[in-house]
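re the bet — no i am not wrong, look at it urself. input seq straight from the record:
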Amino acid sequence: MTILKPDHIDTRELKNHSFNLNILKVSTMKIKQFLAIMLLAQASMASGATVYTDETAFLTHLNPAYFLEEFSGYTYDEHGSFPLDGTQMSENYGSVNGYSWTASTVPSDLVSPPIGLFSLPGALSTYAAEDLLKITFTGKPVTALGGIFASTDINGDVVQQTVTINLSDNTPVSFTGSGFRGFTSDLAITYLTIDAVDLDPNNPYWPKLDHLYVGSAVPEPAAVKAVPTPAAAWLLASGLLGLFSLKRRGNIG
Protein backbone atom coordinates (compact mmCIF):
# COMPACT_ATOMS: atom_id res chain seq x y z
CA MET A 1 0.00 0.00 0.00
CA THR A 2 1.34 3.36 -0.92
CA ILE A 3 1.56 5.83 1.88
CA LEU A 4 1.35 9.40 0.67
CA LYS A 5 3.16 12.16 2.40
CA PRO A 6 0.93 14.93 3.66
CA ASP A 7 2.19 17.28 0.98
CA HIS A 8 1.88 14.74 -1.81
CA ILE A 9 -0.82 15.31 -4.39
CA ASP A 10 -1.70 12.82 -7.09
CA THR A 11 -1.58 15.11 -10.15
CA ARG A 12 -3.44 12.61 -12.27
CA GLU A 13 -6.45 12.76 -9.97
CA LEU A 14 -6.22 16.56 -9.80
CA LYS A 15 -6.10 16.85 -13.58
CA ASN A 16 -9.06 14.51 -13.97
CA HIS A 17 -11.04 16.43 -11.37
CA SER A 18 -10.16 19.75 -12.97
CA PHE A 19 -11.02 18.38 -16.42
CA ASN A 20 -14.42 17.20 -15.23
CA LEU A 21 -15.13 20.57 -13.64
CA ASN A 22 -14.15 22.33 -16.86
CA ILE A 23 -16.44 20.09 -18.87
CA LEU A 24 -19.28 20.87 -16.47
CA LYS A 25 -18.59 24.61 -16.69
CA VAL A 26 -18.37 24.57 -20.48
CA SER A 27 -21.48 22.40 -20.78
CA THR A 28 -23.44 24.71 -18.49
CA MET A 29 -22.23 27.74 -20.40
CA LYS A 30 -23.12 26.13 -23.73
CA ILE A 31 -26.60 25.27 -22.50
CA LYS A 32 -27.17 28.81 -21.26
CA GLN A 33 -25.89 30.24 -24.53
CA PHE A 34 -28.03 27.86 -26.54
CA LEU A 35 -31.15 28.71 -24.56
CA ALA A 36 -30.47 32.41 -24.91
CA ILE A 37 -29.95 32.04 -28.66
CA MET A 38 -33.12 29.97 -29.01
CA LEU A 39 -35.07 32.69 -27.21
CA LEU A 40 -33.49 35.28 -29.48
CA ALA A 41 -34.35 33.18 -32.50
CA GLN A 42 -37.97 32.87 -31.40
CA ALA A 43 -38.22 36.59 -30.71
CA SER A 44 -36.64 37.41 -34.05
CA MET A 45 -38.89 35.08 -35.98
CA ALA A 46 -42.00 36.17 -34.10
CA SER A 47 -41.33 39.86 -34.71
CA GLY A 48 -42.14 41.72 -37.91
CA ALA A 49 -45.34 41.86 -39.88
CA THR A 50 -47.03 39.12 -41.88
CA VAL A 51 -47.11 40.08 -45.56
CA TYR A 52 -49.98 39.32 -47.95
CA THR A 53 -49.82 39.58 -51.73
CA ASP A 54 -53.49 38.66 -52.20
CA GLU A 55 -56.14 41.19 -51.20
CA THR A 56 -58.80 38.55 -50.50
CA ALA A 57 -56.51 36.68 -48.14
CA PHE A 58 -55.58 39.93 -46.40
CA LEU A 59 -59.25 40.85 -45.86
CA THR A 60 -59.84 37.63 -43.95
CA HIS A 61 -57.33 38.94 -41.37
CA LEU A 62 -58.73 42.48 -41.21
CA ASN A 63 -61.42 43.53 -38.74
CA PRO A 64 -64.46 44.85 -40.66
CA ALA A 65 -64.41 48.26 -38.92
CA TYR A 66 -61.56 49.60 -41.06
CA PHE A 67 -60.82 52.81 -42.96
CA LEU A 68 -60.56 52.48 -46.75
CA GLU A 69 -59.18 55.49 -48.64
CA GLU A 70 -59.76 55.46 -52.40
CA PHE A 71 -58.55 59.02 -53.06
CA SER A 72 -61.80 59.82 -54.81
CA GLY A 73 -61.69 63.10 -56.71
CA TYR A 74 -57.91 63.04 -57.09
CA THR A 75 -56.99 64.03 -60.65
CA TYR A 76 -54.01 64.74 -62.85
CA ASP A 77 -54.74 65.89 -66.40
CA GLU A 78 -54.19 68.75 -68.81
CA HIS A 79 -55.57 71.14 -66.20
CA GLY A 80 -53.01 70.10 -63.59
CA SER A 81 -53.09 68.10 -60.38
CA PHE A 82 -55.95 68.35 -57.87
CA PRO A 83 -56.25 68.62 -54.90
CA LEU A 84 -52.49 68.20 -54.29
CA ASP A 85 -50.13 70.07 -56.59
CA GLY A 86 -46.76 69.82 -54.85
CA THR A 87 -47.21 72.79 -52.52
CA GLN A 88 -48.79 70.75 -49.72
CA MET A 89 -46.17 69.33 -47.37
CA SER A 90 -48.69 67.13 -45.56
CA GLU A 91 -52.31 66.06 -45.78
CA ASN A 92 -54.58 64.60 -43.10
CA TYR A 93 -57.07 61.77 -43.66
CA GLY A 94 -59.85 60.49 -41.39
CA SER A 95 -61.03 59.93 -38.80
CA VAL A 96 -63.01 56.87 -39.94
CA ASN A 97 -63.86 54.22 -37.34
CA GLY A 98 -61.28 55.89 -35.11
CA TYR A 99 -58.45 55.54 -37.65
CA SER A 100 -56.64 58.54 -39.10
CA TRP A 101 -53.34 59.21 -40.80
CA THR A 102 -51.15 61.89 -42.28
CA ALA A 103 -49.36 61.77 -45.63
CA SER A 104 -46.05 63.59 -46.06
CA THR A 105 -42.82 63.36 -48.02
CA VAL A 106 -39.32 62.42 -46.87
CA PRO A 107 -36.11 63.12 -48.81
CA SER A 108 -34.34 59.92 -49.75
CA ASP A 109 -30.98 61.36 -48.66
CA LEU A 110 -32.46 62.56 -45.34
CA VAL A 111 -30.69 65.88 -45.93
CA SER A 112 -32.41 67.77 -48.73
CA PRO A 113 -35.71 69.43 -47.89
CA PRO A 114 -38.76 67.49 -49.10
CA ILE A 115 -40.88 69.11 -51.81
CA GLY A 116 -44.51 68.11 -51.36
CA LEU A 117 -47.42 65.81 -52.21
CA PHE A 118 -48.98 65.27 -55.61
CA SER A 119 -52.27 63.86 -56.88
CA LEU A 120 -52.65 61.18 -59.52
CA PRO A 121 -56.00 59.93 -60.81
CA GLY A 122 -57.46 58.19 -57.75
CA ALA A 123 -54.05 57.93 -56.10
CA LEU A 124 -51.42 59.71 -54.01
CA SER A 125 -47.84 60.48 -55.02
CA THR A 126 -44.96 62.91 -54.52
CA TYR A 127 -43.98 66.00 -56.49
CA ALA A 128 -40.26 65.17 -56.50
CA ALA A 129 -38.95 61.82 -57.71
CA GLU A 130 -36.27 61.67 -55.02
CA ASP A 131 -38.80 61.98 -52.18
CA LEU A 132 -40.30 59.01 -50.35
CA LEU A 133 -44.00 58.98 -49.56
CA LYS A 134 -44.61 58.59 -45.82
CA ILE A 135 -47.85 57.57 -44.09
CA THR A 136 -47.99 58.23 -40.34
CA PHE A 137 -50.87 56.81 -38.33
CA THR A 138 -52.38 59.26 -35.87
CA GLY A 139 -55.57 57.62 -34.57
CA LYS A 140 -56.30 54.22 -33.07
CA PRO A 141 -53.39 51.76 -33.07
CA VAL A 142 -52.99 50.18 -36.50
CA THR A 143 -52.12 46.49 -36.68
CA ALA A 144 -53.34 45.87 -40.24
CA LEU A 145 -52.90 47.87 -43.42
CA GLY A 146 -52.90 47.17 -47.11
CA GLY A 147 -52.95 48.95 -50.43
CA ILE A 148 -51.89 49.09 -54.04
CA PHE A 149 -48.32 50.33 -54.33
CA ALA A 150 -46.51 51.20 -57.54
CA SER A 151 -43.57 52.82 -59.26
CA THR A 152 -44.54 55.32 -61.97
CA ASP A 153 -43.02 57.58 -64.58
CA ILE A 154 -43.47 61.35 -64.71
CA ASN A 155 -46.95 60.97 -66.22
CA GLY A 156 -48.15 58.68 -63.45
CA ASP A 157 -48.06 55.54 -65.60
CA VAL A 158 -46.87 52.33 -63.93
CA VAL A 159 -43.36 51.23 -64.89
CA GLN A 160 -41.65 47.92 -64.20
CA GLN A 161 -39.23 49.32 -61.68
CA THR A 162 -38.61 48.55 -58.02
CA VAL A 163 -40.94 49.90 -55.36
CA THR A 164 -39.90 49.43 -51.73
CA ILE A 165 -42.15 49.58 -48.68
CA ASN A 166 -40.72 49.86 -45.17
CA LEU A 167 -42.82 49.61 -42.01
CA SER A 168 -42.01 51.14 -38.64
CA ASP A 169 -41.07 47.68 -37.33
CA ASN A 170 -38.43 47.44 -40.09
CA THR A 171 -40.44 45.00 -42.20
CA PRO A 172 -39.16 45.60 -45.77
CA VAL A 173 -40.98 44.58 -48.96
CA SER A 174 -39.78 45.19 -52.51
CA PHE A 175 -41.27 44.25 -55.87
CA THR A 176 -41.47 45.63 -59.40
CA GLY A 177 -44.26 47.54 -61.09
CA SER A 178 -47.56 47.63 -59.23
CA GLY A 179 -49.24 45.27 -56.83
CA PHE A 180 -51.30 44.77 -53.69
CA ARG A 181 -49.48 44.28 -50.43
CA GLY A 182 -51.12 43.81 -47.04
CA PHE A 183 -49.60 43.62 -43.58
CA THR A 184 -50.75 42.41 -40.18
CA SER A 185 -48.77 42.62 -36.96
CA ASP A 186 -49.03 41.84 -33.25
CA LEU A 187 -47.54 45.28 -32.57
CA ALA A 188 -48.87 48.65 -33.64
CA ILE A 189 -47.55 49.92 -36.98
CA THR A 190 -46.86 53.64 -36.55
CA TYR A 191 -45.79 54.55 -40.08
CA LEU A 192 -44.65 53.28 -43.46
CA THR A 193 -42.58 54.72 -46.29
CA ILE A 194 -42.91 54.04 -50.02
CA ASP A 195 -39.99 54.53 -52.38
CA ALA A 196 -39.80 54.18 -56.15
CA VAL A 197 -36.15 53.27 -56.41
CA ASP A 198 -34.11 55.48 -58.76
CA LEU A 199 -31.04 53.69 -60.10
CA ASP A 200 -30.38 56.18 -62.89
CA PRO A 201 -30.75 59.91 -62.11
CA ASN A 202 -31.65 60.46 -65.76
CA ASN A 203 -34.60 58.07 -65.46
CA PRO A 204 -36.39 58.92 -62.20
CA TYR A 205 -39.50 57.21 -60.83
CA TRP A 206 -42.23 58.28 -58.45
CA PRO A 207 -44.06 56.29 -55.73
CA LYS A 208 -47.80 55.76 -55.99
CA LEU A 209 -50.35 54.70 -53.36
CA ASP A 210 -53.98 53.72 -53.93
CA HIS A 211 -56.79 51.75 -52.28
CA LEU A 212 -55.38 52.03 -48.74
CA TYR A 213 -56.86 49.91 -45.93
CA VAL A 214 -56.14 50.98 -42.35
CA GLY A 215 -57.43 48.97 -39.39
CA SER A 216 -56.71 46.20 -36.92
CA ALA A 217 -55.78 42.58 -37.44
CA VAL A 218 -58.15 39.76 -36.53
CA PRO A 219 -56.46 37.77 -33.73
CA GLU A 220 -55.67 34.24 -34.81
CA PRO A 221 -56.65 31.31 -32.56
CA ALA A 222 -53.77 30.19 -30.39
CA ALA A 223 -53.80 26.77 -32.06
CA VAL A 224 -53.01 28.23 -35.49
CA LYS A 225 -51.00 31.29 -34.52
CA ALA A 226 -47.68 31.39 -36.30
CA VAL A 227 -44.73 30.31 -34.18
CA PRO A 228 -41.13 29.60 -35.18
CA THR A 229 -40.75 26.07 -36.49
CA PRO A 230 -38.15 23.90 -34.75
CA ALA A 231 -36.21 23.49 -37.97
CA ALA A 232 -36.15 27.21 -38.69
CA ALA A 233 -35.25 28.08 -35.11
CA TRP A 234 -32.49 25.48 -35.13
CA LEU A 235 -31.02 26.85 -38.36
CA LEU A 236 -30.95 30.36 -36.94
CA ALA A 237 -29.59 29.18 -33.61
CA SER A 238 -26.91 27.01 -35.18
CA GLY A 239 -25.84 29.89 -37.36
CA LEU A 240 -25.54 32.13 -34.33
CA LEU A 241 -23.67 29.53 -32.40
CA GLY A 242 -21.14 29.34 -35.17
CA LEU A 243 -20.28 32.97 -34.51
CA PHE A 244 -19.07 32.48 -31.12
CA SER A 245 -34.08 66.09 -57.34
CA LEU A 246 -35.84 65.92 -60.49
CA LYS A 247 -39.11 67.87 -59.97
CA ARG A 248 -42.56 66.76 -60.94
CA ARG A 249 -44.60 67.53 -63.68
CA GLY A 250 -46.50 70.81 -63.74
CA ASN A 251 -49.18 70.54 -66.39
CA ILE A 252 -49.42 67.92 -69.10
CA GLY A 253 -49.41 69.11 -72.63
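see?? Residues 1-46, 222-244 have pLDDT under 50 and may be disordered. told u. also The longest helix spans residues 11-46. so pay up
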